[in-house]
């Protein structure tokens, strides 16, 4: 098994990354008005197939499943499909042409419920002039076409502005307010950015989970509201107009990059790795995984196998820790293992399937432990003896190393 290099923060990373929420950040769009209009229009488009009441209740229930989703298995789209279409007793294939037509003909009519924000456009253009990468960190509960249309309504068409990532439910596995959603953004971008900031208008969805990862955030809020809720000294709040000055100050004196060391941040990184790997590796044929070299040391397959090996050793080490949690979860039963194993999107001999299985087991074990047990020392055959928190920091750091290496390879000329 190849030896993976130690992750050194900032060793390869150069550019700064700005994460922007979309609705009521870059685009004036009150969801309390927009969502009922959207549901009414979609219900009307599907009325020949299903009653509006049943359609809306089933769609909202499926959406709630996405909000509660914490497993890296399956994209949000796949999870939604498994909840929504059986719930209305209609195969997706029967409705997909009508839904596609809805987004072509009816969804654009909702534009008049929104308004572009000129100050947001100036902020995006200023950030690009400053050499920043920009990702649209909108809650990925909509398909790509709906998100791209809303960007165009904001006069921020993706063809004109070089966003490095726009989160949609086709390619994401987590959504807001989970910190794993933000970790998945950074993971899909190869953990390559030296500094990251988040700008959004919702405390629970945008600000709190970003700060949980150690990402400074700018909270778009009324001037009479206090910023004392901000946990990081580098975070701030105020108007959209003043956000430009905050961005400039953060880039002038960015401080240290996020350490991702608090326990919730570690768990978010561990959850995001298999999710991001699935998305990134869809770009290339499976048979090439063993042929593409990384740093001339090991292949993509070997790198993924190494992560699986680390997790297997970690799982064995965690078995020696007694469960002290006040509310331990039920053991991972054979039925649950079989069900989740059947959810893997890969063949049995695919290294990513093995990694998914070992990572799910480690996550399950860690979720059962009390906060005190994270300070207990354990002996790990790869990382030696240290506290559980420090050991998992090493594992998360190795995850970031592998994703950084794979991302750099996938975006090099080696595949062309």
Description:
The chain has helices spanning about 30-45, 50-70, 75-90, 90-105, 120-130, 145-155, 180-190, 205-210, 240-250, 265-280, 300-320, 335-340, 350-365, 390-410; strands at about 15-20, 25-30, 115, 135, 165, 195-200, 215-220, 235-240, 295, 300, 375-380, 385. The chain is an alpha/beta fold. Among the domains are: about 30-110; about 265-415, dinb family like domain (Four Helix Bundle (Hemerythrin (Met), subunit A)), CATH 1.20.120.450. The strands form 4 sheets. It has a 6-stranded parallel β-sheet with strand order 5-4-1-6-7-8, with helices on both faces. Strands 2-3 form a two-stranded antiparallel ribbon. A two-stranded antiparallel sheet has the order 9-10. Strand 4 (about 135), helix 6 and strand 5 (about 165) form a beta-alpha-beta unit. Helix 5 packs parallel to helix 9 (about 240-250), helix 10 (about 265-280) runs parallel beside helix 14 (about 390-410) and helix 11 packs parallel to helix 13.
Describe the SSE topology.
Blueprint: E1 16-20, E2 27-28, H1 31-45, H2 52-68, H3 76-88, H4 92-105, E3 115-116, H5 118-129, E4 133-136, H6 144-153, E5 165-166, H7 179-188, E6 195-200, H8 203-212, E7 217-220, E8 236-238, H9 240-252, H10 263-281, E9 293-294, E10 298-299, H11 300-318, H12 334-342, H13 351-367, E11 377-380, E12 384-387, H14 388-410
Parallel strand pairs: 1-4, 1-6, 4-5, 6-7, 7-8
Antiparallel strand pairs: 2-3, 9-10, 11-12
Helix pairs in contact: 1-2, 2-3, 5-9, 7-10, 10-13, 10-14, 11-13, 11-14
